[in-house]
Amino acid sequence: MSENKITYIKNDILDEGYYSIDHKSGLRIFVYPKPEYASAYAVFGTKYGSIDTRFKRSDRVDFVEIPAGTAHFLEHKLFESEELDAFQRYAATGASANAYTSFDRTCYLFTCTGNFKENFEILLDFVRHPYFTEETVLKEQGIIGQEIDMYKDSPEWECLFNMLAAMYHKHSVKIDIAGTKESISKITAEMLFSCYETFYNLSNMALAVAGNISVEDVLEVADRLLEADEPVTVERAFEEEDSSIVKAFVEENLPVATPVFCFGYKEKSPSPNRSVKDEIAKNLVLDVLAGQMSDLYKELLDEGLVNNNFSTEYFRGCNYGAMIFSGESSDPEAVAEKIKKGISDLKKTGISQEDFETVRKKQYGKTVRAFADIDTVANSLIVSHFENDELFSEFEVIKEMTLDYINETLDSSFEEDCAVLSVVRSK
Amino acid sequence: MIFSKKLWKPAMGYGIMEEITEKYCNIGCDRMKYSFNKTALSCKGDFCSISSDSFKSACVSVSFMLPLGDDASLYALVPNVLTRSSQDYENLAAVERKLANLYGAELIVDVSKVGETQVIKLMISCIDDRFALDNEVIASESSKLLFDLIFKPRLENGAFCDADVESEKRILCERLFAEQSDKRVYAKNRCEEIMFADEAYGIHRYGDIESIEAITPAGLYEAYLKLLSTAKIAVCVSGNTDFSAVKASFEESISDISRNVVSTETLFVESAEDVQYEKEQEDVKQGKLVMGFRLGMKDMNDNYAARRVMVDLFGGSPHSKLFTVVREKMSLCYYCSARMIRAKGYMFVQSGIESYNEEKAKKAILQQLEDIKAGSFSDEDIQASVKALEDSFRSVTDSPESLEGWFMSQCVSGEYRTPDEFIENFKAVSREDIIKAAEQVTLDTVFMLEGTATEGESNE
């Protein structure tokens, strides 16, 4: 490709839109201008997260297996260079920079209120120029080891991963994003270069900028700095996952004042791809079932079983999905029983038209609000792209959603033999 | 938007992230997109309006300010009980249904301490009227709901409802317990308790468990009436809405109450005499070291800009000494950062370390301060700190909620300044100012939470 292909996508409700650019380098770039903002936010991401431990490049024959925690490790190492590291460079131009690794992606980001182009150059430069030696890799093993320890002290984090381990026999979602001290000790500089070459190919990445920026400024820098990669596609392989759970109950002892719990229903046949409609419907079902205006939440609160930390989430990704209820309770087992009963009661009566309209209205309001936040907008552009969605499709989905569809969703969710309760309490 | 921030592993320790998100502030002088206006309320208090027509949301807040004291638990519980029900909404489910029907309006209760003032804030935030699907007036309905909750509580036998009070007491206690479970927060709280044992600031913003447990519905109702009659009040409206109608509606709501406002003050202790040290042990993997310093301030405005830049250079940003030397170069900790509490004139350093490194870490942290005193930092370092502060202050203008937060963080002093005014002062800070600010810092208290768990022990 020798030319940039630019498309403008507009939303009438918000009266704003964004540019989707097929950049000549092979990278997809999104620019969402908000001239009334003081800040700009940029995020450069690769579709490479903690679950990607087995894969094959399109130009190779064999599948490769890598230690858990490699994506996160690589994220840490990319900030380094032979001279000034990325943080030091950003300090000179004035930006807040960070990066994160999730289950399915690694993203590098910054936000600033001035010097956008200089900051943007730093971002494109350091993500495109890896530098590490056996020595620096060794040093990082110590730093990440500390981080793994810190998360081991976090009851919520432990509780969630204990639940995932009790839910999944094989899927790599059950392993902590940072890996284990043991797994990261196997990481070598050579391995990092090979993962970098595979996943940091521009065709496997996306770049999104939102806020006080212009498409001209973004392209001026991108055209200058981004050299085309030979396109590579990555085939991921997940081991066959049984639809059953490993065990229905898991407990760990950590010093906590009030026990922490995660109660989740594993999906038996999760899809590798996201459906926005399905995802919204599941969130609406959770809101009707256990949201703050539900009978179930009132009962849990009145009986002293939960506090306002209680929350619900539909958790999904490639080949995994679960409906999760989490919070703190003096009696997590009783909470789980109440939730089970709440589900079976709601399945009997079905969701009413009134409740459906109310949660739908709330969801619409939340969606409008989310577009005020430039970091949410930019990160969502990346996520939507990796999932082959369009950012604004949610408005249409909310509008078209029907009571029948969410009642069908309710019926097909929460299979009794797929429930797992994870508890963290003091000895 | 379908996007969860819950499951991220950030590259940097929380320390820095927290700094960045907590340093809210800022306003673009080159493109004024909002205007700030302050008038007096008839009930004595400030009415602040921040107008802008480009935002997607609007918000209204009411802040009550009282001296931080023995009644802290009572006042902390009041807003939670108020938002639980009202004369028109019989329980939380009814309140939540109303909020959902206001397109997911959000009701936020915030109890904080600003110096030795306890601030009880109730706020509602909603989407702008232009997004309503049936031409509803969302913002004025939302402010009406907020004022109803505050002024028309549901009562039984002349007091708050027993069940609501008991339930909210439990929840507040659990929140305090949760702070004890979060070892990072716990260590910081303990350091404050020890350091300010003889000052009102040593009181937690929620008071303590025993006081919460002792609360009765009648006692709480009495505290509520006292709050309405004696607290200093600030109301803030931010967004594109009819400010005078909101103001009139608030004044009408409070008109029956006879007001006798009590003023609040904060004691500034300029320097520490000797260092207090306390150590506790806990079955956790990572040790937590917290150090509390007096900054030498006589009041909250005393040489603020220089001290703020100094704290940033010392441990506020990724280019700071604590981050680049103690964390990166010496690999002594996973996070290590400094934060300034302007309203009390103090600074604390938080770090997560291997417990056996306690002495080494302490020494390294203090050495960084000595290095600043000795002038061992470059002009680029100063520039980087000023830029970082400028950057975080400027972005305040980007939402009605952050503008509300910015201006209301100043409601105790009642001196409402724009972020630009602060930025100008930061830019004027010289190398000598920074050295002088560092010279006035004295270490007051060290708290160490020693981790006793060994590898694998706290696993299943």
Quickly name the level 1 CATH class of the largest domain in chain B: Alpha Beta
Helix proportion of residues of chain B, in percent?
40-55%
Low-confidence stretches of chain A: none
- Number of H- or I-type helical stretches of chain A: 15
Strand adjacency order, main sheet of chain B: 2-3-9-4-6-5
Radius of gyration of chain B, in angstroms, nearest whole number: 23 Å
Helicity level of chain A: 40-55%
In total, how many domains does the architecture of chain A comprise?
2
Q: In total, how many beta strands of chain A?
A: 15
Shape of chain B: globular
Characteristics:
heterodimer, A: 427 residues, alpha+beta, Cytochrome Bc1 Complex, Chain A, domain 1, 2 domains, seven-stranded mixed beta sheet, five-stranded mixed beta sheet, 15 strands, 42% helix, globular, B: 460 residues, six-stranded mixed beta sheet, 16 helices, disordered N terminus, disordered C terminus
Care to give the gist of this entry?
The complex is a heterodimer of chains A (427) and B (460). Helix content of chain A is 42%, strand content 21%.
